[in-house]
Design brief:
Length: 145
Protein backbone atom coordinates (compact mmCIF):
# COMPACT_ATOMS: atom_id res chain seq x y z
CA UNK A 1 0.00 0.00 0.00
CA UNK A 2 2.67 2.54 0.99
CA UNK A 3 4.68 1.54 -2.08
CA UNK A 4 1.76 2.36 -4.35
CA UNK A 5 1.21 5.70 -2.64
CA UNK A 6 4.90 6.54 -2.96
CA UNK A 7 5.04 5.41 -6.58
CA UNK A 8 1.82 7.25 -7.42
CA UNK A 9 3.17 10.38 -5.74
CA UNK A 10 6.32 10.21 -7.88
CA UNK A 11 4.18 9.85 -11.03
CA UNK A 12 2.08 12.84 -9.96
CA UNK A 13 5.17 14.96 -9.36
CA UNK A 14 6.63 13.98 -12.75
CA UNK A 15 3.29 14.78 -14.39
CA UNK A 16 3.09 18.20 -12.75
CA UNK A 17 6.75 18.92 -13.57
CA UNK A 18 6.11 18.19 -17.24
CA UNK A 19 3.12 20.54 -17.13
CA UNK A 20 5.14 23.18 -15.29
CA UNK A 21 7.90 23.11 -17.90
CA UNK A 22 5.33 23.32 -20.69
CA UNK A 23 3.62 26.29 -19.03
CA UNK A 24 7.02 27.94 -18.60
CA UNK A 25 7.73 27.45 -22.32
CA UNK A 26 4.31 28.85 -23.23
CA UNK A 27 4.86 31.83 -20.96
CA UNK A 28 8.13 32.50 -22.79
CA UNK A 29 6.35 32.35 -26.15
CA UNK A 30 3.56 34.63 -24.92
CA UNK A 31 6.14 37.10 -23.54
CA UNK A 32 7.93 37.22 -26.89
CA UNK A 33 4.60 37.79 -28.64
CA UNK A 34 3.52 40.47 -26.16
CA UNK A 35 4.17 43.49 -28.42
CA UNK A 36 2.08 41.89 -31.17
CA UNK A 37 -0.64 40.79 -28.72
CA UNK A 38 -0.98 44.33 -27.37
CA UNK A 39 -1.64 45.96 -30.73
CA UNK A 40 -5.16 46.11 -32.15
CA UNK A 41 -7.19 44.24 -33.23
CA UNK A 42 -7.50 42.50 -29.88
CA UNK A 43 -10.41 40.06 -30.28
CA UNK A 44 -8.84 37.81 -32.94
CA UNK A 45 -5.67 37.63 -30.85
CA UNK A 46 -7.64 36.65 -27.76
CA UNK A 47 -9.31 33.89 -29.76
CA UNK A 48 -5.89 32.74 -30.94
CA UNK A 49 -4.64 32.80 -27.35
CA UNK A 50 -7.55 30.64 -26.18
CA UNK A 51 -6.99 28.17 -29.03
CA UNK A 52 -3.22 28.00 -28.43
CA UNK A 53 -3.71 27.58 -24.67
CA UNK A 54 -6.34 24.88 -25.23
CA UNK A 55 -4.11 22.92 -27.58
CA UNK A 56 -1.21 23.23 -25.14
CA UNK A 57 -3.40 22.03 -22.26
CA UNK A 58 -4.59 19.07 -24.34
CA UNK A 59 -0.98 18.21 -25.16
CA UNK A 60 0.03 18.36 -21.50
CA UNK A 61 -2.95 16.28 -20.46
CA UNK A 62 -2.22 13.75 -23.19
CA UNK A 63 1.41 13.46 -22.06
CA UNK A 64 0.31 12.81 -18.50
CA UNK A 65 -2.26 10.21 -19.54
CA UNK A 66 0.39 8.47 -21.67
CA UNK A 67 2.76 8.47 -18.67
CA UNK A 68 0.20 6.77 -16.43
CA UNK A 69 -1.00 4.35 -19.12
CA UNK A 70 2.57 3.33 -19.98
CA UNK A 71 3.26 2.78 -16.29
CA UNK A 72 0.17 0.61 -15.88
CA UNK A 73 1.14 -1.36 -18.98
CA UNK A 74 4.79 -1.81 -17.92
CA UNK A 75 3.69 -2.97 -14.47
CA UNK A 76 1.47 -5.57 -16.14
CA UNK A 77 -1.68 -4.20 -14.50
CA UNK A 78 -3.68 -4.56 -17.73
CA UNK A 79 -3.52 -7.12 -20.52
CA UNK A 80 -2.99 -4.55 -23.28
CA UNK A 81 -1.79 -1.00 -23.71
CA UNK A 82 -5.19 -0.04 -25.13
CA UNK A 83 -6.87 -1.23 -21.94
CA UNK A 84 -4.34 0.70 -19.82
CA UNK A 85 -4.93 3.84 -21.90
CA UNK A 86 -8.70 3.50 -21.73
CA UNK A 87 -8.65 2.99 -17.96
CA UNK A 88 -6.34 5.97 -17.51
CA UNK A 89 -8.53 8.28 -19.60
CA UNK A 90 -11.69 7.19 -17.80
CA UNK A 91 -9.95 7.61 -14.44
CA UNK A 92 -8.25 10.94 -15.22
CA UNK A 93 -11.50 12.50 -16.32
CA UNK A 94 -13.32 10.98 -13.30
CA UNK A 95 -15.81 9.47 -15.72
CA UNK A 96 -15.52 6.13 -13.96
CA UNK A 97 -17.54 3.90 -16.29
CA UNK A 98 -16.48 0.84 -14.32
CA UNK A 99 -16.30 -1.44 -17.35
CA UNK A 100 -12.50 -1.80 -16.92
CA UNK A 101 -11.36 -2.15 -13.33
CA UNK A 102 -7.97 -2.19 -11.64
CA UNK A 103 -7.00 -5.49 -10.09
CA UNK A 104 -7.58 -5.27 -6.35
CA UNK A 105 -3.88 -5.26 -5.51
CA UNK A 106 -3.37 -2.11 -7.69
CA UNK A 107 -6.46 -0.08 -6.87
CA UNK A 108 -4.65 2.48 -4.68
CA UNK A 109 -2.51 3.41 -7.68
CA UNK A 110 -5.73 3.84 -9.67
CA UNK A 111 -6.96 6.30 -7.05
CA UNK A 112 -3.69 8.20 -7.33
CA UNK A 113 -4.25 8.49 -11.10
CA UNK A 114 -7.71 9.92 -10.45
CA UNK A 115 -6.26 12.43 -7.98
CA UNK A 116 -3.68 13.42 -10.60
CA UNK A 117 -6.45 13.97 -13.14
CA UNK A 118 -8.40 16.19 -10.75
CA UNK A 119 -5.29 18.20 -9.95
CA UNK A 120 -4.45 18.50 -13.63
CA UNK A 121 -7.83 19.80 -14.66
CA UNK A 122 -7.72 22.41 -11.90
CA UNK A 123 -4.21 23.54 -12.76
CA UNK A 124 -4.88 23.69 -16.47
CA UNK A 125 -8.12 25.64 -16.01
CA UNK A 126 -6.25 28.14 -13.84
CA UNK A 127 -3.51 28.41 -16.47
CA UNK A 128 -5.94 29.13 -19.28
CA UNK A 129 -7.88 31.72 -17.29
CA UNK A 130 -4.70 33.45 -16.14
CA UNK A 131 -3.23 33.56 -19.66
CA UNK A 132 -6.36 35.17 -21.04
CA UNK A 133 -6.71 37.57 -18.10
CA UNK A 134 -3.08 38.63 -18.25
CA UNK A 135 -3.16 39.42 -21.96
CA UNK A 136 -6.54 41.16 -21.77
CA UNK A 137 -5.47 43.39 -18.87
CA UNK A 138 -2.28 44.34 -20.71
CA UNK A 139 -4.26 45.08 -23.87
CA UNK A 140 -6.54 47.43 -21.95
CA UNK A 141 -3.58 49.15 -20.30
CA UNK A 142 -1.81 49.48 -23.67
CA UNK A 143 -4.90 51.00 -25.27
CA UNK A 144 -5.32 53.56 -22.43
CA UNK A 145 -1.63 54.44 -22.26
Amino acid sequence: MLGQIAFGSVLMVVSVLVAGMAVWALETVFARCAPWLMRAPHRPKLILLVVASSIAVLAMLTASVWLWAATFHLLGVFASFEEAMYFTLVTFTTLGYGDVLMPQNWRILGGMAAANGLLYFGLMTAFMVEALRHVRVRQIEFTKG
